[in-house]
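Notes from the 1:1 (GR / supervisor)

We went over the backlog. Supervisor wanted to see one worked example end to end before approving the batch request, so GR pasted a single chain during the call. The sequence is below; no edits were made to it. Supervisor asked that the structure be written out right there so they could see what the output format looks like.
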Amino acid sequence: MAHIKVFGHRVMTIGALLGLFLIASGLSYLAATSLLAAGMIVTGLR
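Structure output shown during the call:
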């Protein structure tokens, strides 16, 4: 039973790390696209 509990905890930890990584990459992607869009708008206005 203890072995299964440790394994489950490890899977949950890996899942949490993957979730954080996905959220961080998604936020950086959104920031990059918004910066690109802002740059395009600024250059378009000039």
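Supervisor's comment: The chain has a mean pLDDT of 90.
Batch request approved.
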